[in-house]
Amino acid sequence: MSGENTGGEGAEIVPLKSEMRSEPSEHRNAGGEGAEGDDECREHCIGVPTGPPSGCLDGIKNTAHRRKCIIALVILVVVLIIIIIIVISLVCRNQCQSSLYLASQKVSCMDPWITYKGKYFYIAREEKDWFMSLKTCSLFNASLAVIDTQKELDFWVHFLGPFDYWFGLSREINKVWKWANGTEFRNQFPIHGEGLCAYINAEGASSTKCTVEKGFLCSCNKVAAILAKTTSSKVGSS
User: Fold this and answer.
1) Burial group, residue 123, by CB count within 10 angstroms (0-12, 13-18, 19+)
2) In sequence order, which ranges of the chain are alpha helices (DSSP H)?
3) Are 79 and 178 members of one domain?
């Protein structure tokens, strides 16, 4: 009996086959849990990319779209600013060129009279035929403008712009051009057209029927201009 006990105590306990068979399944379960843990560790701890969630893709697309919109808006604003600067520069340049041109010609104003090289001129915006224009100038102790040189004509072409203004030349059919005081024109500059009364526009001196209504340009000397200024003030107030 004692020998059996001693042998029993020294004997190795051998696990049952059922227990041995269950161990792999337990290892497999343990291995599955470990695999899931490894994936989680790779994704969150090690940083191995496994792909963003679907919600993240939408957020990335929206962010990229907003970024494109912002860039397009910035480009549009910059283009508009450049266009505005160019337009302002062109306008200012034209105004400055006109101012410099007038300054170089030493023009001074005695509203509504303008001084140019010792003569005084009155620019009438109201439109009349050539004869009524001459009569209106006479009310200011003046006459329709006498223009002596090509340079003076060029000045008035630039100053008056694209509009038409009568000045002091007229003629009879097949006769020479004469000034309103009867002095013959010495052909200091060409007069275009076949009309009997002359006017100034952007193309220079031209002619047409005397009955056409246009603005007109009066001129006089310094003494007459002082009287004309007084007269024009009275006419304007009345």
Assistant:
1) middle
2) 2-10, 17-40, 54-104, 130-139, 150-160, 222-237
3) no
Reported as a pLDDT band with limits 50, 70 and 90, residue 43 is low
Transcribe 203-229 into DSSP letters: TEEEEE-TTS-EEEEEEE-HHHHHHHH
* Phi, psi (degrees; rounded to nearest 5) at 19: -70, -40
pLDDT band at 64 (very low <50, low <70, confident <90, very high): confident
pLDDT confidence of residue 22: 47
Distance CA 219, CA 121 (A): 4
Q: Which two tokens stand for residue 34?
A: 């470990």
Instruction: Give me the domain span that covers residue 135.
Output: 114-229
Residue 119 lies in a domain: yes
CA Rg value for the chain: 51
Residue 78 sits in the same domain as residue 173: no
CB distance 199 to 127 below 8 Å: no
**What residues contact 159, with CB distance under 8 A and at least 6 apart?**
102, 107
- The answer to whether the Cα torsion of 39, 40, 45, 47 is positive or negative is positive
DSSP bridge partners of 122: 113, 218
C-alpha pair distances (Å), 110 with each of 115, 123, 166, 188: 7, 12, 21, 28
> 166, 197 in Cβ contact below 8 A?
yes
Could you tell me if residue 147 is inside a domain?
Answer: yes
Half-sphere exposure at residue 76, Cβ-oriented, CA atoms within 13 angstroms: 6
Does one domain contain both 75 and 182? no
121-148: pLDDT as tens digits: 999 989 999 999 999 998 888 899 999 8
